[in-house]
């Protein structure tokens, strides 16, 4: 199954920042697709809700040193 969520990411200032966050999300078991947009400071993530919850996505972003707030 697939769930989509959008996350506001705080603190990104360059494409290296957004690539770091994007790769961290893509490396998580259960994440099917993750795109991070620097310009809008948002991530859109498709994931299997049977494998993980959005809280783990927020935690993974915070572990990279950035702030994360669920949008939808
Ligand atoms: Mo870019 Mo981001 O030089 O923490 S990697 S600012």
Automatic annotation (TrEMBL):
Locations listed in the record: Membrane
Family indicated by similarity: Belongs to the cation transport ATPase (P-type) (TC 3.A.3) family. Type IB subfamily.
Domain (HMA): residue spans on this chain: 3-69
Protein known as: HMA domain-containing protein
Positions spanned in the full protein: 123 to 194 of 986
Protein's organism: Hevea brasiliensis
